[in-house]
Structure to design on (460 residues):
């Protein structure tokens, strides 16, 4: 394995770094809240340390207000509850009914979902009308997400990306949270002729299609079939539902692995395995029961986790794509710490933050199942990555910089990321999703270190 895992690291040993992280995080959130003009759209990533917009899809506003809610969860500082709560009330309704994106789990679970969780955990005073408001938003969001449906030739289907009905994105594995929560709230999608469409069925089928076509298992599928490799996009013929080929939007090529997409897979499958444990047996019978689903999802989670561990530098922060063309100019890049200031290829700290959370969740899942060696390996790898991220050069110490997690990359092929004078590749910048997932990772470890309930998106 390329990552040098610290097997002695425990959540308690990270408390000092996490406390410092949230102290820095507070000023970043307040700076953005003070300077951001909503008329400019949604903040996406930083340029010279200041958050800017970048029109593609509206998928990051939930991370803006969700970050404030995570800050409140960690610190009990009510000014962040006010920012997150008011931002959700004023700006998130359009995301609930947004029919053009596959990002409902990002936007709405991070905001309405967090607020509903606070009420369940008695972090908010109980108010029936407010609770019902959050629940209605989450029900609608899950159904709207599920309505983006393409049928496959094998009789199942997938939630299609903003690219259109032919396109499955690996990102959507984590956006399945929207369907899960709406299903738990007792909601269904109503179709033509009043057809009642199960949100759980669409969740299960999307996870199946993703595990089947977006992830490789070293089983001879094509000449580039390496176990754990992930395709960012999977293309289907919408006339007959047949799978056609892998593709990539933000990665280097269809036959290399974009590491943030890899991280979405690890985290998404790990979270759905957690969700699977709380569902009643009766609900899972149509798909062969809990064990049948867990076998496929665990196969996908472990394959992608193993690939991440084997193809990431010793510190746990990956370069942006495992097949990036200039990696060969960085001799031994996997055997030493990643260098965000190298002149050849950027790293992506946001992929590390997402993957670390997924690795810890997967490790805890396996430990609970009695698979101790593998479980410990994944869990400790996730904690090791977290220790790297909550320190320099990834932790943003500069007061003027509005990001908290440095060296995040958005869209390398399109050249959207800022390259500073004197540098040859992007570095030193932050993203809404990177900052959010760093906060979520920190909160998850913080809660565990303090003996609090596990941080999950669903009602457990």
């Amino acid at each position: 394995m390329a990552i040098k895992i610290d097997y002695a690291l425990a959540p308690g040993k990270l408390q000092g770094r996490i406390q410092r992280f949230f102290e820095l995080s507070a000023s970043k959130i307040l700076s953005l809240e003070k300077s951001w003009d909503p008329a400019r759209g949604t903040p996406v990533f930083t340029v010279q340390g200041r958050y800017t917009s970048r029109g593609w899809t509206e998928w990051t506003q939930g991370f803006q207000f969700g970050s404030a809610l995570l800050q409140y969860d960690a610190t009990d500082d009510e000014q962040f509850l006010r920012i997150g709560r008011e931002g959700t009330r004023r700006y998130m309704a359009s995301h609930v009914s947004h029919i053009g994106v596959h990002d409902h789990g990002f936007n709405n679970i991070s905001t309405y979902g967090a607020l509903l969780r606070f009420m369940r955990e008695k972090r908010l005073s109980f108010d029936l009308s407010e609770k019902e408001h959050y629940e209605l938003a989450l029900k609608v969001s899950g159904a709207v997400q599920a309505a983006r449906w393409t049928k496959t030739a094998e009789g199942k289907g997938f939630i299609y990306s903003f690219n259109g009905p032919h396109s499955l994105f690996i990102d959507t594995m984590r956006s399945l949270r929207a369907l899960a929560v709406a299903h738990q709230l007792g909601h269904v999608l109503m179709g033509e002729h009043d057809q009642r469409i199960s949100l759980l069925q669409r969740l299960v089928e999307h996870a199946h299609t993703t595990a089947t076509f977006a992830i490789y298992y070293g089983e001879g599928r094509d000449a580039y079939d390496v176990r754990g490799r992930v395709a960012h996009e999977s293309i289907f013929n919408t006339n007959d539902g047949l799978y056609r080929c892998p593709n990539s939007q933000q990665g280097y090529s269809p036959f290399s692995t974009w590491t943030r997409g890899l991280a979405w897979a690890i985290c998404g499958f790990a979270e759905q395995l957690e969700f699977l444990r709380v569902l009643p047996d009766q609900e899972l019978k149509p798909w062969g029961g809990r064990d049948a689903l867990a076998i496929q999802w665990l196969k996908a989670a472990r394959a992608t986790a193993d690939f991440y561990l084997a193809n990431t530098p010793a510190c746990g922060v990956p370069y942006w794509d495992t097949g990036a063309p200039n990696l060969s100019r960085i001799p031994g890049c996997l055997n030493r710490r990643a260098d965000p200031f190298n002149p050849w290829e950027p790293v992506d700290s946001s992929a590390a933050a997402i993957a670390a959370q997924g690795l810890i969740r997967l490790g805890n899942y396996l430990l609970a199942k009695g698979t101790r060696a593998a479980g410990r390996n994944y869990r400790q790898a996730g904690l090791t990555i977290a220790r790297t991220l909550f320190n320099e050069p990834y932790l943003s110490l500069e007061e003027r910089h509005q990001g908290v997690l440095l060296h995040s990359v958005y869209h390398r092929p399109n050249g959207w990321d800022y390259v500073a004078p004197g540098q040859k590749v992007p570095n030193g910048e932050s993203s809404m999703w990177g900052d959010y997932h760093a906060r979520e990772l920190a909160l998850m470890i913080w809660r565990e270190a303090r003996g609090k309930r596990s941080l999950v998106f669903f009602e457990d």
